[in-house]
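Review form for a predicted model. The reviewer records the input and the model, then writes brief findings.
Reviewer: anonymous (R2)
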Amino acid sequence: MVAMNEPQVWTLIGVFAAVMTGLISIITRSFTRSIADLSEKVDVKLESLGNQVESKFDILSERIDGLKTEMMLRFEKVDMRFEQVDQRFEQIELRIGKVEGRLDKIEKRVDDIDHDVQLISKNTFPQ
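Model under review:
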């Protein structure tokens, strides 16, 4: 068996330690570069997804604005129709008011005729 105090053994131990340290540093550097590359790829992918989401929201916002404009136009049309119906009701109210006035005149004339008939009947058929 070889004793631990031989210079060749210590040289082999030193070479082994240097090789292991070199391998560990190379692997660590390689791993760090891989992680950095993956991190950059993830950043690019996230930025791309962010841009896609932003463009989708812009498209959605434009659609909503278009629907809002269309809805406002339709509401304006409905409002105009309500105004027309309101004008028609006002015209009907005026006509009904005129008819009521005429009916009041007719009712007064009928009451006057009734009163005259009662007077005639009292004079003709005294009790």
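Findings: Residues 7-124 form the longest helix (118 residues).
Further findings: The radius of gyration is 53 Å.
Recommendation: see findings above.
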